[in-house]
Structure to design on (660 residues):
C-alpha cells in the first residue's frame, strides 16, 4: 500500500502532509492505531521504515515518536519482537554520519516533574538463566578522533537537599564470585596512558565530601584486600604513590589502621621501600610536618597498650647482609642554629610489680675478628665538653649496683681503663672513687682486688696473682712528681679508722713481703722515709711499734735496721726519742722466753777492710744549763731463783803480727 502526499515545486510552498489519526472518545479509550508490516512463513517479515523527507541544501525532516498529552501521559515502547528459535532482533538508535559537519547527538532525557522523585533512566542488558550462560553487557564508548571523546556521567543536582548519588556496582552472584568494577584508561603506543582521577567535589561554604575505598564484608570467608599499585616502568623511574592530607587552618591527618582480629592476631602494617637488582634499595623516610612559626611535629612510634598480657615488642634495626657490611643505626636529635640541640632519652617503662625492665646495649658479634666496640661520648663544647654520668637510680630501700666488668675469655680477658683526658695548657681532670654517705649505718667500703689465679687438678697453674699498683703522675722539668696519700676516715667523737698494710696469709709457702721505700735518684738526695704518729692535744701521742711474727716450731723473726752503704763514709743509724718538756726515753729490750733464755741485745760497730772498725761510745749528752750531765748505769738484772748475770768487759782477739 502506498500513501503519498502531493509534491510541491514552487519556491514558497511546502509539500503536502499525510496525517493518520485514530478516532477520539469522550468517555472511553481513544481509538488505537496499529501499523503492521507483512508476515512471511519462510523468509523475513516485511520491513517497517519511518523516514523523514530528504533535503538537498537544508536539514532533512525530523522524526518524532511520542505519546500524547494527558493527565498521565502514555508510555513509549521501542522493542524488537520475540524470537521462538533464534536471536531476537537488535534495537539500534543512532544518528547519521556527516561529511562536512558534526554528527548529531543522542539525548536520553527524562521530563521534569513537579512532585516527589524525577523519572529514572534504566539501561538493562538481557538476562539468561541456562547453565554456563553469561548475561548481556552494557558498553558505553566515546567517539574516536584525533582526541577521543569524553564520557561524562553526572548525578543530578539538588537545590536544597543532597545531590544524587553515583553508584558503580558489579553484578551480584548467588553461589559464585560477584562481578568486578574496573576503572582503566586505555594503553598508549607512544605517549602516556591516561590518568585516573577519583575525587570529591569542591565546596564553597561547607565541607567537601570524603573519599572511601572499601572492600565488602564477608560473613564466613576472608574480606577482599585493597591494593594501590603502580605499574612497571621500562627505562625511567618507577611511578610514585603519594598520600597527602588536605591543607586547612588545621592540617588533615593520615591514619593507616590494620584490620581488627576478633579471635586471632590483628592485621599487620608494613612499610617497605622498593628493592633493586643492581643499585641501592629505596629509602623509607618518616618526617613530621615543618612549621614556620612554631615547633615541627612530633613522631611517636608505640606498640599498643595491653590489659592482661605483655605489650608488643618494638624493634628498630638495619637488615642482614650476606657478603657486605650491614647498615648502621643512627638515633640523633637535630642540630639547632640559635638554641640548644634536643635531648636523646632511652627510658625503660615503670612496672608496679616485679623487677624493672632491662636496658641493654650490646655491640656486634664477630665470628673471625674482634667484636664491636661501644663508644659513649659527650658533646664537644667551646667552654667545656659535657659530663658523663653513670649512676643507678635512688630508692627508698637499697639503690642498685653499678658494675663495670670486662667479659670472660678462654684467653686474656679485656682490660678496664678509667682515666681523665689529657690537657694541653691546663690541669688534667681528677679521678675520684667515692662511696656515698650513710645517715644511720656504716659507710660503704672501697675494695680494689687484683685478679686471682684459679687452679684445678685437671689444669694446674703456676702463675702469680695480679698486682695492685698505685703510681702518681710524673712531673716535667723542675716540677715535683705527684703525691700518693692514703688516709683513714675521720670521726667526730670516736677513734679514726685504721690504716693496714699487710700481705696475704699463705697455707704452704712464705707469706709475701711488705716493702715501704722511697725512689732512687741519679743526681740528688733520695726521699726520706718517715714513720710518725699524730700529735695529741690532751692525751698520749701514739707509739711506733715494729714487730716480727711469732713462730710455733722455729725462731721468731728478726728486726733489722740498716742504714745505707756508701763508698767514703757510711751513714749513721740514730735511735732518738723526740724533744719535749719532760724526759723521753729510748729503750732497747730483747725478747722474753717462757722455756729458754731471753733474747740477747748485741751492738756492733761497723767493720772495715782497709781501716779500723767503728767506735762504740756510751756517753750522756752535754748539759747546757745548771744541771748535771746524766749517769751511765751498767748492770745485770735481778733473779728470783737463780744467779744474776755477769758483766764482762773485754777486748777482741788480735791475729796480726803488729798486735801486742
Amino acid at each position: 500500500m502506498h500513501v503519498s502526499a502531493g509534491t510541491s515545486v514552487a519556491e514558497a510552498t511546502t509539500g503536502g502532509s499525510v496525517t493518520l489519526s485514530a478516532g477520539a472518545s469522550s468517555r472511553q479509550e481513544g481509538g488505537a492505531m496499529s501499523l503492521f508490516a507483512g508476515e512471511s512463513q519462510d523468509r523475513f517479515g516485511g520491513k517497517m521504515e519511518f523516514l523523514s523527507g530528504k533535503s538537498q541544501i537544508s536539514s532533512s525532516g525530523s522524526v518524532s515518536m511520542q505519546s500524547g498529552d494527558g493527565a498521565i501521559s502514555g508510555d513509549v515502547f521501542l522493542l524488537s519482537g520475540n524470537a521462538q528459535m533464534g536471536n531476537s532482533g537488535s534495537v539500534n538508535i543512532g544518528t547519521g554520519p556527516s561529511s562536512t559537519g558534526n554528527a548529531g547527538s543522542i539525548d536520553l532525557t527524562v521530563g521534569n516533574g513537579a512532585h516527589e522523585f524525577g523519572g529514572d533512566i534504566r539501561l538493562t542488558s538481557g538476562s539468561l538463566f541456562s547453565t554456563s550462560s553469561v548475561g548481556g553487557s552494557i558498553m558505553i564508548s566515546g567517539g574516536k578522533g584525533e582526541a577521543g571523546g569524553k564520557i561524562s556521567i553526572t548525578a543530578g543536582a539538588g537545590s536544597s537537599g543532597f545531590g544524587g548519588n553515583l553508584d558503580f556496582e558489579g553484578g551480584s552472584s548467588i553461589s559464585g564470585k560477584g562481578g568486578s568494577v574496573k576503572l582503566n584508561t586505555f594503553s598508549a603506543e607512544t605517549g602516556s596512558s591516561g590518568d585516573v582521577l577519583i575525587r570529591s567535589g569542591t565546596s564553597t561554604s561547607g565541607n567537601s565530601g570524603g573519599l572511601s575505598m572499601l572492600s565488602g564484608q564477608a560473613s564466613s570467608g576472608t574480606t577482599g584486600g585493597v591494593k594501590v599499585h603502580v605499574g612497571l616502568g621500562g627505562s625511567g623511574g618507577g611511578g610514585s604513590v603519594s598520600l597527602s592530607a588536605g591543607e586547612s587552618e588545621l592540617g588533615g591527618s593520615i591514619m593507616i589502621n590494620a584490620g581488627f582480629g576478633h579471635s586471632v592476631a590483628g592485621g599487620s602494617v608494613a612499610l617497605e621501600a622498593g628493592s633493586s637488582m643492581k643499585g641501592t634499595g629505596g629509602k623509607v623516610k618518616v618526617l613530621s610536618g615543618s612549621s614556620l612559626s612554631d615547633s615541627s611535629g612530633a613522631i611517636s612510634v608505640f606498640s599498643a597498650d595491653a590489659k592482661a598480657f605483655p605489650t608488643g615488642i618494638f624493634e628498630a634495626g638495619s637488615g642482614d647482609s650476606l657478603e657486605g657490611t650491614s647498615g648502621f643505626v643512627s638515633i640523633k636529635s637535630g642540630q639547632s642554629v640559635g638554641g640548644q640541640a634536643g635531648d636523646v632519652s632511652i627510658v625503660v617503662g615503670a612496672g608496679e610489680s616485679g623487677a624493672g625492665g632491662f636496658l641493654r646495649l650490646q655491640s656486634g658479634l664477630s665470628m673471625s675478628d674482634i667484636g664491636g666496640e661501644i663508644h659513649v661520648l659527650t658533646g664537644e663544647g667551646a667552654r667545656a665538653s659535657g659530663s658523663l654520668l653513670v649512676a643507678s637510680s635512688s630508692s627508698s630501700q637499697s639503690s642498685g649496683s653499678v658494675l663495670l666488668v670486662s667479659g670472660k675469655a678462654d684467653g686474656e680477658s679485656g682490660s678496664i681503663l678509667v682515666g681523665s683526658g689529657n690537657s694541653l695548657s691546663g690541669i688534667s681532670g681528677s679521678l675520684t672513687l667515692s662511696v656515698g654517705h650513710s645517715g644511720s649505718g656504716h659507710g660503704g667500703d672501697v675494695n680494689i682486688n687484683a685478679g686471682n689465679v684459679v687452679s684445678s687438678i685437671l689444669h694446674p697453674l703456676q702463675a702469680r696473682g695480679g698486682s695492685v699498683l698505685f703510681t702518681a703522675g710524673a712531673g716535667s722539668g723542675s716540677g715535683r712528681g705527684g703525691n700518693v696519700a692514703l688516709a683513714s676516715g675521720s670521726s667526730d667523737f670516736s677513734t679514726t679508722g685504721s690504716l693496714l698494710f699487710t700481705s696475704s696469709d699463705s697455707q704452704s709457702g712464705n707469706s709475701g713481703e711488705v716493702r715501704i721505700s722511697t725512689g732512687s735518684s741519679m743526681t740528688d738526695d733520695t726521699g726520706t722515709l718517715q714513720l710518725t704518729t699524730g700529735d695529741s692535744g690532751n692525751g698520749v701521742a701514739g707509739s711506733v711499734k715494729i714487730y716480727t711474727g711469732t713462730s710455733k716450731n722455729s725462731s721468731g723473726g728478726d728486726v733489722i735496721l740498716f742504714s745505707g752503704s756508701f763508698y767514703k763514709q757510711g751513714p749513721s743509724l740514730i735511735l732518738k726519742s723526740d724533744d719535749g718538756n719532760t724526759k723521753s726515753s729510748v729503750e732497747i729490750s730483747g725478747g722474753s722466753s717462757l722455756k729458754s733464755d731471753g733474747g740477747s741485745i748485741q751492738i756492733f760497730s761497723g767493720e772495715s777492710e782497709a781501716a779500723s772498725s767503728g767506735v762504740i761510745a756510751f756517753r750522756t749528752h752535754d748539759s747546757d744549763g745548771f744541771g748535771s750531765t746524766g749517769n751511765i748505769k751498767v748492770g745485770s738484772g735481778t733473779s728470783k731463783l737463780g744467779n744474776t748475770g755477769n758483766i764482762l768487759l773485754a777486748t777482741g782477739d788480735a791475729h796480726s803480727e803488729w798486735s801486742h
